[in-house]
Amino acid sequence: MSKKEMYEARTEELITPILDRRNFELVDVEYVKEGSTWYLRVYIDKEGGITSDDCADVSREMNEILDREDYVEGSYTFEVSSPGIGRPLKKEKDYIRSMGKELEIRTYRAIDREKEFYGILKAYDADTVTIEQEDGKEMVFEKSNIALIRLAFDF
């Protein structure tokens, strides 16, 4: 297990009781480097949407635990955030929630000279995602070939 995976797993383990007490959902945990700064980010949600006060409360409580446990080497910035409107599908519950809804899928490699696809989520399993496009054509994508998958939204 890499340091990144260890930090993310330990953070998930420590923050879950905080979120459970508040009936919040853990969407994702990521440990990433942006520029010269490392970030430990937690994305949370709840029915009706998460507020900035919710994020601040969770952050305050989790910061105390991070200071006490001190399991992340070096300096980093800890953030608690909403997953936002462009929330990616990562866990099975995300796929269940998105069945029958329109998705945006971006692939690592072009398929028929395209890398961006839209369609209604029809099926998924551990390895694949199936969408039905506007013309009725079904497309099956290997999850390993998907760079991004999220609900489609119009502006």
Question: Main attributes?
Answer:
five-stranded antiparallel sheet, alpha+beta, 8 strands, three-stranded mixed sheet, 3 helices, 155 residues
Describe the structure.
This protein has 155 residues and is an alpha+beta fold. The chain contains three helices and eight strands; from the N terminus they run H-E-E-H-E-H-E-E-E-E-E. It has helices at residues 3-22, 52-69, 92-98, and strands spanning 25-34, 37-45, 77-81, 102-111, 114-124, 128-132, 138-142, 146-151. A five-stranded antiparallel sheet has the order 7-6-5-4-8, with no helix packed on it. Helix 2 links the parallel strand 2 (37-45) and strand 3. The protein is elongated. The chain starts with a helix and ends with a strand. The model has no long low-confidence stretch (mean pLDDT 92).
Tell me the distance between the termini: 40 Å
Q: What is the percentage of strand-forming residues?
A: 35-45%
Query: Which secondary-structure class do the elements indicate?
Result: alpha+beta
Uncertain runs are: none
Structural shape:
elongated
Which H/E pattern describes the elements? HEEHEHEEEEE
By DSSP, the count of extended strands is 8
Mean pLDDT: 92
Largest sheet: 5 strands, antiparallel
Radius of gyration from the alpha-carbon trace, in angstroms: 18 Å
State the strand order across the main sheet.
7-6-5-4-8
Helix content: 25-40%
Write the layout of secondary structure elements.
Elements: H1 3-22, E1 25-34, E2 37-45, H2 52-69, E3 77-81, H3 92-98, E4 102-111, E5 114-124, E6 128-132, E7 138-142, E8 146-151
Parallel strand pairs: 2-3
Antiparallel strand pairs: 1-2, 4-5, 4-8, 5-6, 6-7
Helix pairs in contact: 1-2
